[in-house]
Design goal:
By secondary structure, the protein is α/β, with parallel strands linked by helices. It is built from 9 helices and 4 strands.
C-alpha cells in the first residue's frame, strides 16, 4: 500500500524490534512505521532506542490497542503518531503526512477518549512537574506546539521572532523534563492546555 502511493518509498522491512533498530542504523529512513506487537525486543524499547540515537527519525506506532496506558507509554517513548490498525488508508496517510511535516498525529478514533481521560485529571500522584512553573508566554507556546503549529506559525501568531519561540520551547521542555514534540503534546493534553 505504501509503495503504491507517490512520494513514499519503502527502504526496508524488519521482522522484530531488534532488527528494526539495526535497519534504522543502516538505512537512515525519514519515517519508521512500527507495529506495537513486534516479537522479541518490545516496540516501546525500540522506539526509545531509535529516538535516542536518531532523534530526527519520525516514528508512527501502529496497533489495535486503545487503552490509555498503551497510548501514554508509546507517546512517552517518543512516537510521533499513534494509528490504529482498523483505521482507514486515509488515516494512515494522514499520519504519514503529519509526521513528515513535523507534526504529531493521534488516530481520530482515540482522540476524544484520550482528551477526556487526560483533561479529567488522570493520576495526581505521577510526580510530574506542575504547569505553574511555566511563564505565561511558555503556556501560550506549549498550547500552540501541541496544536501542531510550526515555529514560524507560532512566531507570526505571537508577533515574536522564530528564535524567541525556540528559546521558549527549549525552556518549557527543560522545566517539564520533556524531550520531543510527542511528549509536549501528551503533556499539553493531559494538563488541559488543549481543548476541543
Amino acid at each position: 500500500m505504501l509503495e503504491s502511493e507517490a512520494g513514499y518509498e519503502v527502504v526496508g522491512v524488519a521482522s522484530d524490534g531488534e532488527s528494526a533498530m539495526l535497519a534504522v542504523s543502516e538505512l537512515q529512513p525519514d519515517i519508521v512505521l512500527i507495529d506495537l506487537a513486534v516479537p522479541r525486543t518490545s516496540a516501546i524499547d525500540a522506539i526509545v532506542q531509535i529516538k535516542r540515537q536518531y532523534p530526527h527519525v519520525k516514528i508512527i506506532a501502529l496497533t489495535f490497542q486503545k487503552e490509555d496506558k498503551h497510548i501514554h507509554a508509546t507517546l512517552e517513548a517518543g512516537a510521533d503518531a499513534y494509528v490504529l490498525k482498523d483505521d482507514s488508508r486515509t488515516e494512515l496517510f494522514g499520519a504519514l503526512a503529519s509526521v513528515a511535516n513535523g507534526k504529531s498525529y493521534l488516530s481520530p478514533s482515540i482522540v476524544d477518549k484520550v482528551m477526556a481521560g487526560y483533561i479529567s485529571g488522570g493520576d495526581a500522584s505521577t510526580g510530574e512537574p506542575s504547569r505553574e512553573i511555566l511563564t505565561r508566554r511558555e503556556r501560550e507556546v506549549i498550547k500552540l506546539v501541541a496544536e501542531g503549529k510550526r515555529t514560524k506559525e507560532i512566531a507570526t501568531y505571537l508577533s515574536l521572532s522564530p528564535k524567541t519561540i525556540e528559546k521558549h520551547r527549549t525552556n518549557l521542555m527543560r522545566k517539564l523534563d520533556l524531550h520531543n514534540v510527542s511528549e509536549v503534546t501528551a503533556y499539553a493534553i493531559k494538563n488541559g492546555f488543549v481543548t476541543d
